[in-house]
Amino acid sequence: MYSKNVPTSFPKDFLWGGATAANQIEGAWNIDGKGLTTAEVVKKAENHHTLTMNDVTKKSLQEAIDDKTDVNYPKRRGVDFYHHYKEDIAMLAEMGFKAFRLSIAWARIFPKGDETQPNEKGLEFYDRVFEECHKHGIEPVVTISHYEMPLNLTLKQNGWASRETISEFTKYTRVLFNRYKEIVKYWMTFNEINAIQGGFTGTGALDSQLSVSEKAQVRFQALHHQFVASALAVEQCHKIDPQAKIGCMLARMQTYAKTSDPKDVRAAQFQDQLNLFYTDVQVRGEYPEYMNRYFKENNVELKMVEGDEAILKQGKVDYLAFSYYMSNVTSAKQDVEKFSDTFIAGESNPYLETSDWGWQIDPVGLRVSLNEFWDRYRVPLFVVENGLGAVDELTHDGKVHDQYRIDYLRKHVIQMKEAIKDGVDLIGYTTWGPIDLISASTSEMSKRYGFIYVDQDDSGNGSLKRIRKDSFFWYKQVIASNGDKLE
């Protein structure tokens, strides 16, 4: 009779922690030799539901370059982690963090992207950050490119639309792997690589003036260049630091059929394939067959050079990391087989609640996704973003009672534990924004995710004082109990 023990909880070496991005926390956008990035030319939104992350044109780009302030460009100021990193990491350590996911600002290392030598002051900053992490027993988990690149590469060669960007990226990654050998154990190449579907933030390419068909061509060609660059970086990492692990990172969009109508089921299946296509390439090392028809029907002709397919096969990632915030509902009416430049799309699900920003809350969908990833790929999985963006209010006595965030996270932790019982190999969980930061999609400060409140408003006013929220103490308990104490 076949019998095997079923896991009952999280692994003993589970990587509990939180995740951030350089362009959302660091600030110090124009000091110590740092260059301007693509993230720092995106204007802040006028309201909660206006997504500005891809709203960049030649005109708005020039306006941003001419503007030497951070008034309209909050990612230039972040929450000043550049000068507060010791305090911030100490607070993460107080919560018991095992891992801290952060990104390196490419333009701190190569300000214009095309220099022959790196900026030593930029490297020294991350020397200090990693030293501080290790002092507190925190494993740095590093994203190499998180929604930003040196703006000069956009001006010079239209970002990732140019194949020349591959060599600039691999020059950058080679410097990182050599500098931080045996210091950084976990790497990721591109944050939410499927963000290329939305345009500028993912590609660094200006294409707003193009037709839908032309946009598809530019964006998928840019993606191919990223795939090749990622695969080459994986090979570099394995050669320079064989003990390190390097993964890919996807924005997971779990999709359900609106009804049991087979046409709706097929629409949901294909929408899911479009989401998993990115990880199919990076984990399996090849383009999946189902994309051939999609490319043909959307007039996309990828330009590959000899050897590209071999590079993809050789540069398969060690683990699959992903963000999970919501799920989608799809019907045949949406015609998902036609290219859409909307990164997040779908119909409302009547069975789910929504956040203040209209994101549908679906903890069970996380378990569904974990099982689907494990069944499909059989590589270690890492939930590197999950959290609730909300308007947090300070009480008269200077506290933040964010029970809604605790409830949200608890439900997702429960579903991760269920997935582990299902047999999923899950290595870690880093919630998004352990400290309040600038929103990626709207550049707001008022959309808060953190366990730590930062005294700063959407206009940049405030003392930058760090304040522990109720969720800070809750997450500390979760980590100390390895996910057993969730109340």
UniProtKB/TrEMBL annotation:
GO terms for molecular function: beta-glucosidase activity. InterPro entries: GH, GH_1_N_CS, Glyco_hydro_1, Glyco_hydro_1_AS. Keywords: Glycosidase, Hydrolase. It comes from the Bacteria. The keyword Hydrolase applies. One of its GO terms (biological process) is carbohydrate catabolic process. Pfam families: Glyco_hydro_1. The active site is at E385 (nucleophile). The keyword DNA repair does not apply. GO terms for cellular component: cytosol. Belongs to the glycosyl hydrolase 1 family. PANTHER family: 6-PHOSPHO-BETA-GLUCOSIDASE ASCB-RELATED, GLYCOSYL HYDROLASE. This is 6-phospho-beta-glucosidase. It comes from Pediococcus ethanolidurans.
